[in-house]
Structure prediction request, 278 residues.
Amino acid sequence: MRYFVAVAEELHFGRAATRLHMSQPPLSRAIKRLETEIGAPLFVRSPVGVTLTPVGAVLLDEARALLDQADRVRVRVSAAAGVAAITVGILGDGTDPGTARLAAAYRRSHPGIDIRVRDTDLTDPTCGLRAGLVDVALTRAPFDETALTVRELRTDPVGVVLRADDPLARRSRLRLADLDERRWFQFPQGTDPIWQSYWNGGEPREGPVVRVVQECLQAVLWNGTVGLAPLGHDLPAELAVVPLTDMAPSRVVAVWNEDDTNPLIRSFTDIATAAYRH
Prediction:
């Protein structure tokens, strides 16, 4: 199921294989076996990637629920066994250099700790904290911070992602009002409204529903949709990002449940604060 979810979220076998730290042929074979067991195709394949079939879309929701439950069981069993472990949730983009510096620094200072990482999509900015799936999350604010402790690690300016051939992509700066007539990508119904509002520039918008970073980029590439993103991230050559002059910065934060007394969280966030300031 983890293989299937990776392909469904990346919408590309090559990117999914990279994410899973494996080569593409065994991943393709595993998905073929799953399709044979189910008796229906899960993906529509094309030279540029894949899209989910209706059967695949249903399975994706169920697979995510099953994997979440498996993660809960693993956390509870480890706690009962007294294993020194910390589970870290990482939102969407795990390529941030601050994350790499944090991983190296934490391994050096805590060599005996079992560190587990849970990559999450864009529908839950707390990365499963409220569901008990992680101990601490590396994510972006703003979102509903009720009963959570939030530590700011860094702020990033924000721009609008456009097709490279969009007339607005030739501008050096834009304002949100320049995008009023455009379609924006949306998160699924039930997503934290504070989080949704921020990434829609504070206004109600209409557009395709997305769950992961790659879906956001594909929505821009295929449909001419616009959306916001922190500056400084690598994009495909077909896309461009233009800074917004009237958009509040995106805050990179570490967040954990305010009543969690796990001592590993404090040391983790202290190291994170230093790693993200470099």
